[in-house]
Amino acid sequence: MKPIRPLLALAFVGSLHAAEPVSSVDAALAKAKKAHAPVLIDFSAPWCYSCYFMATHVLNGKEWKAVEAKTVVAEVDADSPDGAAWMKKLEVKALPAYVVLNENGDELGRILAEQPREKFYPNLDGIIAGASTLDDFKRKAAAGSFDAVATVLGSYQARGEGRAGLDWYKGLQENVQAAAGSNHYVALWLDRLELARAANAKDDAGVVAAAKRVLAGDIDCDRPYVVDQLLEASEKLPKAERTALLAPQKIALDAMLSKQVFIAKPACADQRSTVITTADVDAALGDSASESAVLDRAIGAARGQLGANLGKDRNLADNLRVYLARAKRTDELDALYPKLIAAYPDDYVYPYRYGRSLLERGQPAAALLLLEKAADKAYGENRLAVAMQRVKALKALKRQDDAEKVVADVLEQNGQWFPEQVAKLKDALKS
Q: What region holds the Thioredoxin domain (predicted)?
């Protein structure tokens, strides 16, 4: 779906071949300036199931070694203060995200969400080899390059800046617009930008209209994300009208499951979204039997691949958790959580998720034990998320003094970095 970028030669110094990834973007940029090499920022977080898919299935092997040889790789934790700041600066709104900067910090391009190897590396290689900033592509677009127009539009779409992208396109000369608008890729990006614009404006009618056009195009594995937008925007429509909108997507999603997800080598890296979106469409159509069937199939497939070893594939293990939760198979989920905690003992994620689940089901005492275990391993932004649930549990147990101490401690540790989360935490203490 993306246009092919022109391949321009870059020179890289030999010292990069043995380089280790760094965890600071500023350190990576300093290193890149000395090496005259681009920076690849790999944004991830311990709660990001898609990040584990990429780490396990994509960011390894000879292709990854080749990337490390010609770039400075910055492995950035989005929950850290530095990571959160760069996420905001680069307008990265979801994980995983891979952003390529030149040595001066100008963006060359980005890749979002999970990608199979056969898509990720050609895309990344094209970004690195192109060595053009967004401003360069805008100049080429103004000169009439369809590929450059599509690249710029895709960049706006990746940031969710629908209005800005459409305004930029409207600023092109009329003859350039007329010619570019007939290009398949350009037309699809324009529809996707209109969808982003409508979503940002909370214009449900606009979302529905744009989503219909986008879903009629070749969007491959992005289909469930667009269908999710269609589901939300169509909630208030009359039942018959909504059914007419969703029924074709039910057919398309079922085909995706059969041809791209429930196969030996799935074509779509993010299998979870296709499963959950299909179940949501079934529910919206009132087809509870199909809803249960797709979730049961996904649960069975995940268990079959994992066997007794949840540590075999964290992405798949977390998919199993989500499928059980969506299917409301609570007893099985409660049996799974301790196994997940044992399989992944070094981070806060599963004690936190299990504690939050118990708290939502009215079991604050049991939840607090797990949340305190999570707090021992939490850091940065996720320390505040854990504290929020601890406060809720303590307040439910009528332990206001302890709740206030939790807030005071976490603010001393991390409060200066995350003002929005701090405000919510203080509100939870008062409520």
A: 1-129
Give mean pLDDT, residues 249-271.
Answer: 91
pLDDT tens-digit profile of 42-60? Answer: 999 989 988 988 998 899 9
Rounded distance, CA 25 to CA 83, Å?
Answer: 8
Looking at domain 346-431, which of 1.25.40, 2.60.40, 3.90.550, 1.20.120 is its CATH number?
1.25.40
107-112 vs 97-101, strand pairing mode = antiparallel
The pairing of beta strand 72-77 with beta strand 39-44: parallel
User: Does residue 14 have a pLDDT over 70?
Assistant: no
CATH second-level architecture of 14-132? 3-Layer(aba) Sandwich (3.40)
The tokens describing 113, both together, are: 């969400």
Residue of 189, 140, 180, 158 lying closest to 5 (CA atoms): 140
Residue 118 CA, distance from chain mean position:
19
Residues 6+ away with beta carbon under 8 Å from 210:
191, 192, 194, 195, 197, 198
- Would strands 107-112 and 39-44 be described as parallel, antiparallel, or unpaired? unpaired
Cα dihedral sign, 231-232-233-236: positive
